[in-house]
Amino acid sequence: MKTLLVTGGAGFIGANFIHYWLKKYPDDQLIALDALTYAGNMENLAPVQDNPHFTFVHGNIGDQLLVESLLEKHKVTTLVHFAAESHVDRSISGPDEFIETNIIGTYSLLKAAKQVWIDTPASKGEKPISHRFHHVSTDEVYGTLSATDLAFTEQTAYAPNSPYSASKAASDHLVRAYHHTYGLSVTTSNCSNNYGPYHFPEKLIPLVIINILHNKALPIYGDGMQIRDWLYVEDHAYGIDLVINKGLVGETYNIGGNNEWANINIVKAVRQLIEKAFIDDQALAKKYPDAQAAIAQNTESLITYVTDRPGHDRRYAIDATKTRDELGYEPRESFETGIAKTVHWYLNNEVWWQAVMNGSYRDWVEKQYVSN
Ligand code: NAD
Ligand code: TYD
Questions:
Q1: For this structure, is 140 an active site residue?
Q2: Which residues contact 94 (CB under 8 A, 6 or more apart)?
Q3: Rounded to an integer, what distance in angstroms lies between the CA atom of residue 75 and that of residue 197?
Q4: What is the mean pLDDT of residues 56-72?
């Protein structure tokens, strides 16, 4: 039985990870630490809120004393670090929080982990407590690829291009340094773009679904030919599980979906699934009366090309051979089934996304549309 501290557990991937983990390891104890920024949402954790194996703590990863007390009090031996500012566009309009949370926050967590797992036992003449610090990172740290470049491996040199990816790269380096210098038992995973339930609707896929249901424009940055590798979020949780349980300390592992799509084509796939859902289920037209283009089967008319994102990376692609060969990792969800599940999750969970849309998020979106 393990006790895990999951930072950022109320966010998109953190919450999905918690659901995955408690289903697979029901005897483990999970503590989620989350500052509940605009992206954190207690509704993401509603399915586990009454589970006696789950505890939620509202707090900041930058609060070193709080983290130390949680590690000590709950005898935590595994820390899984998701907490971050995660949206590239926000990092362009306001990088400060990215530096604060992703770099300084990660540094603070590393100090807390070192203190509790290594320094305190040493001060009593004891051996370090057996532990694992798993850091969740992104493929964006590797920079951008042309259409013909080989996919990113764990050996690819870091070349981050946005304040978001630069802040994640900095945190990856700090995690590495804490292993090499102080002997902290760390692993890092660099994953491609996730999609699935509880995805915050500022990101491409949920934004497209919800805009179609409101009959709003689907903003395509630049020419829409930028390429991302998409992975169903539960498969990311599965990959992290394998890294924590089978990965070697000090190593980094790429996790990807082998599933590259140009943005305009992923938008097309989502549009077609929604149009089909409206044909298959007549009740949807009543439920979403604003969705005129979906009802009329012409969602293509909503596509609107807008000014490109500054410094927009052209292509990301992950070579996950190491993770496959050393840990036996293969994504389990096909893109076809994963994206269909995702579209249906949003069609069936209007209460969840309406609540998100009515929060402070709306002001931010309106500001973006004005500047476009
Ligand atoms: P998210 O923005 O949905 O969630 C981030 C969570 O962290 C939120 O619940 C937020 O409240 C919390 N948080 C932010 N600052 C905090 C702080 N200072 N202290 C405590 N909690 C704080 O992000 P996500 O998409 O779930 O991403 C999670 C992690 O996975 C991030 O580290 C991100 O870089 C990484 N990642 C994301 C993707 C992706 O496609 N979304 C892909 C690869 C890696
Ligand atoms: P996003 O979901 O923000 O993820 P990331 O920037 O981390 O890859 O964006 C995915 C891709 O979609 C990216 O190339 C930017 C593009 N995009 C649009 O074209 N329009 C949009 O409204 C958004 C949010 C993203």
A1: yes
A2: none
A3: 31
A4: 98
Choose among 70, 342, 312: nearest CA to 207: 342
Which domains are present in the chain? 3-199+231-258+311-333 (3.40.50.720)
What's phi and psi for 316, nearest 5 deg? -120, 140
Query: With contact defined as beta carbons under 8 Å apart, do 329 and 246 qualify?
Result: no
Atom of ligand 2 nearest to the CA of 226: 14
pTM: 0.96
Q: What amino acid occupies position 120?
A: T
Is the C-beta atom of 62 inside 6 A of ligand 1? Answer: yes
Helix, strand, coil content of the chain in percent (nearest 5): 50, 15, 35
Ligand 1 test: best mutation among 7, 37, 192, most atoms within 8 Å of CB?
37
Quote the longest CA-to-CA distance of the chain: 73
Both tokens assigned to 271: 């549009």
- Tens of pLDDT, residues 79-129: 999 999 999 999 999 999 999 999 999 999 999 999 999 999 999 999 999
- The span from the CA of 32 to the CA of 147, in Å, is 39
